[in-house]
Amino acid sequence: MKQFHIFLALVGSGILFSACDNASKTKDTPRRGQKTFYADESFQPLMETSSYTFMGIYPDAKLDFVYTGETAAMNAMSQGKTRTIFVSRDFTDKEKKSLHASNIQVESGVFAHDAVTFIINPGNNDTLLTQDQLKNILTGKSTTWPFSNKPIEVVFDRVQSANFNFMLKWLGNASYGKVVHATRSTKELIQYVQNHPLTLGVIGYNFISDLDDPAVKKRLKQFKVVAIQGEEGSYWRPNKATITEKKYPFHREIWYINSGAPDGLNSGFINFLNGRQGQLLLEKCELGPGKGTPREINFITE
């Protein structure tokens, strides 16, 4: 904030005004300032909880979030719109070289784990899918539900979201079939599944992970979660245990990518997420930890 120093002096019957403007803005610190972050929308509940907690601890900090698709968030960083993003993958070596050419140096790491989650209408009894069945549905080789044989439609939260990109990568060299579509947000997708009983929806587990959240309890009444067959033959739904133990097939990482100054607010928030308080928030949100929850050990000497 600009500070103006005004000195008043009376000269005869007139007044002489002189002003000195110190226009330099206060530099942000790890606990103070205002910054804009971008995140894939499927991580919105976690980022809202984390940022609100951080700002509660440090009231001089203001964290603004833009929730969008994963590809859009990564493009925002490359275009200089933000210094920190939260996505499901790191930049590739080729992408990092391109960033370096634009004088953007990034630090990246995994701070949490969640999962791609498949949901269906409450009236749909096709609650189990093998990975082969899912692959055939996504690529268009199969256009019906395995149990009911009724026509199937697959809908993602949005095009080029973390969920959309993760599953496309899982398909390898294959591409999505004609039954695959996308809405514009997770909330819109959930409403679509409610209105279209034969839809298989694809959302982030973070939207249903915090069972203490009244919004999550209400949300879970709007659909069923599909169980996916794991490598050993058992069927699993995503939860903290199956994600951490990697039993649920579509567990994934949540990455931070940061180009902010080491002594700035961007890095301060990243350090918070990686620290004890941030990792404890993951337990509250029922997500897998990034590096494990740090423990404080007191040594007593006699």
Question: Explain this structure to me?
Answer:
Helices cover 30% and strands 28% of the residues. It contains 10 helices and 15 strands. Strand 8, helix 5 and strand 9 (180-182) form a beta-alpha-beta unit. Helix 9 (265-274) crosses helix 10. The strands form 3 sheets. Strands 3, 4, 5, 6, 8, 9, 10, 11, 14 and 15 form a 10-stranded mixed beta sheet that branches. The protein has a 3-stranded mixed beta sheet with strand order 7-12-13. The model is unreliable at 1-25 and 292-302 (pLDDT under 50). The chain has helices at 44-57, 70-78, 93-101, 131-139, 162-170, 186-195, 214-219, 240-244, 265-274, 276-284; strands at 3-11, 14-22, 33-40, 61-68, 84-87, 107-120, 128-129, 153-156, 180-182, 199-204, 224-225, 227-229, 235-236, 251-258, 288-289. With 302 residues, it is an alpha/beta fold.
Structural class: alpha/beta
Can you write the helix and strand succession as a string?
A: EEEHEHEHEEHEHEHEHEEEHEHHE
Counted by DSSP, the helix tally is 10
Number of DSSP E strands: 15
Mean pLDDT: 89
Uncertain residue ranges: 1-25, 292-302
Oligomeric composition of the shown chains: single chain
Please bin the fraction of helical residues: 25-40%
Shape: globular
Radius of gyration, Cα only, in angstroms? 24 Å
